[in-house]
Automatic annotation (TrEMBL):
<keyword id="KW-0732">Signal</keyword>
<dbReference type="InterPro" id="IPR050490">
    <property type="entry name" value="Bact_solute-bd_prot1"/>
</dbReference>
<feature type="signal peptide">
    <location>
        <begin position="1"/>
        <end position="22"/>
    </location>
</feature>
<protein>
    <submittedName>
        <fullName>ABC transporter substrate-binding protein</fullName>
    </submittedName>
</protein>
<dbReference type="Pfam" id="PF01547">
    <property type="entry name" value="SBP_bac_1"/>
</dbReference>
<comment type="similarity">
    <text>Belongs to the bacterial solute-binding protein 1 family.</text>
</comment>
<keyword id="KW-0813">Transport</keyword>
<dbReference type="InterPro" id="IPR006059">
    <property type="entry name" value="SBP"/>
</dbReference>
Length: 441
């Protein structure tokens, strides 16, 4: 979420970098309806989104309202989706639809009996327009409960072209080259990386890209399922590799202390805001939405990226993630909520956010021309065509207590590691202890 010295941009650059094929796609398919059949009804939707993401998702909800007559109400849960939704269910105030950001949370909700299986209409649309992997991650015990509406390409490193041009940097091909390039950026007057350590999920993404490339997909899958212990030597090695960056004061903007006080939007601001403090920020494709919406950057010109580089001779990683829409049984208007999911499954709904930016859809039937710039268009193409090489965000597959809770589990332990990266082996042991407890629960 870089161009070479000649600064290739857009679809061509990303296709070369990520192996994407030519940009293109099928045309939008109408969602049907439009007869205001849901007039007078209100669908409540809970999700983690705030800021520009919430604003852009509201455009999708408004389009649903215009089509069906239903009103919508969005409730921002913060990062602790599981806790907030659970308390609302217990209090008799359950939302109708939840946008779930972790596979583990979706599985937890289904096993607690909170979810309604998706309608035959939605499942048919998913079968026709989505790669099987998205249905797999949305299903529990063979039943489809979650519709992946928003996807993420989490193997992108975003940068300011001006900053890197001044430093004379070429896109790094390996992790060690990236750290070396970062030190050159630092010598030119800016820190290399802005790190969003206040948000533990960003640190899990750093780890996952390193681990997938360094340890390989088989071990990645085993660790994600906790069939491999976090005390394994491959985990200790990956933490050590990550620690090379964390402990280098030339690489992290403001050092470790400031990184721990920087949230994700703040990390983007440090690179693309009015007073830049760093040349690069690692995170997913959604960095583009913040850079464009909040700081007016033109994607591909003022903000660009290079693929997360290969580690220790491994393949460059492709880590994905996504937000799945689910329908709660206890919602006061669950039937209208199911109609919302039928709409969200269509390319028509995806096109609304695609035009707004900061969004990728896993729906293969969405016309890629709906994306607002060539960089995003090519990112979307590379994601949906990546096939078996893609791995879903590991922390999102874990139980929420380990991989998806603010101030606990992997999020907190990696924040502790950012604060003091001197003991990878000890951190691995603490991760294993937390993981074992969460998976047993």
């Amino acid at each position: 979420m870089m161009r070479r010295t000649t600064l290739l941009t857009g679809c061509t650059a990303l296709a070369l970098a990520l192996g994407a094929t030519a940009c293109g796609g099928g045309g939008p398919v109408a969602a049907g309806g439009g007869d205001k059949a849901l007039g007078g009804q209100t669908v409540t939707v809970a999700g983690v989104w705030t800021g520009s993401e919430q604003k852009n998702f509201q455009k999708v909800l408004d389009a649903f309202s215009a089509k069906t007559g239903a009103k919508t109400q969005f409730i921002s849960t913060g990062d602790n989706v599981s806790t907030v939704v659970g308390s609302k269910i217990e209090g008799g105030n359950a939302p109708d639809v939840v946008m779930v950001p972790q596979v583990g949370v979706l599985q937890q909700f289904a096993k607690k009996g909170w979810l309604t299986p998706l309608s035959a209409t939605t499942e048919k649309t998913v079968d026709a327009g989505y790669a099987p992997v998205w249905k797999k991650y949305g299903s529990v015990d063979g039943r489809l409960y979650g519709l992946y509406f928003k996807a993420a390409h989490k193997s992108t490193v975003w940068y300011s072209p001006d900053a890197l041009d001044q430093a004379g940097i070429k896109p790094p091909k390996t992790y060690d080259e990236m750290l070396k390039a970062g030190r050159t950026v630092s010598d030119s007057g800016l820190a290399a990386f802005s790190v969003a350590g206040q948000d533990g999920w960003t640190l899990t993404d750093w780890f996952e890209n390193i681990y997938l490339s360094q340890a390989g997909p088989e071990k990645y899958d085993a660790l994600a399922a906790h069939k491999l212990k976090w005390t394994d030597a491959s985990v200790v090695k990956a933490l050590g590799t990550l620690g090379k960056l964390f402990k280098d004061k030339r690489l992290v903007a403001g050092g470790q202390k400031e990184a721990l006080n920087t949230d994700f939007p703040g990390s983007v601001e440090k690179v693309f805001g009015p007073k830049p403090e760093a040349g690069m920020v690692y995170e997913g494709d959604f960095v583009a939405g913040v850079a464009h919406d909040q700081f007016g950057k033109t994607i591909g010109t003022d903000a660009n990226f290079f693929p997360f580089p290969a580690v220790d001779g491994g393949k460059a990683p492709v880590v994905s993630g996504g937000d799945a829409a689910v329908v709660l049984k206890d919602g006061k208007n669950a039937k209208a909520g199911m109609k919302l999911l039928e709409y969200l499954a269509t390319p028509e709904a995806a096109a609304v956010w695609a035009k707004a930016g900061g969004f990728l859809s896993p729906n293969r039937k969405l016309d890629l021309a709906q994306y607002g710039d060539d960089v995003t268009r090519a990112t979307a193409k590379s994601l949906i065509t990546a096939g078996d090489s893609v791995r879903f965000d590991m922390s999102d597959q874990a139980p929420a207590a380990f991989g998806g809770t603010k101030g606990a589990g992997e999020w907190k332990l990696l924040q502790d590691f950012l604060r003091d990266p001197s003991d990878p082996k000890g951190t691995a042991a603490r991760l294993e202890s937390a993981a074992a407890k969460a998976y047993q629960g």
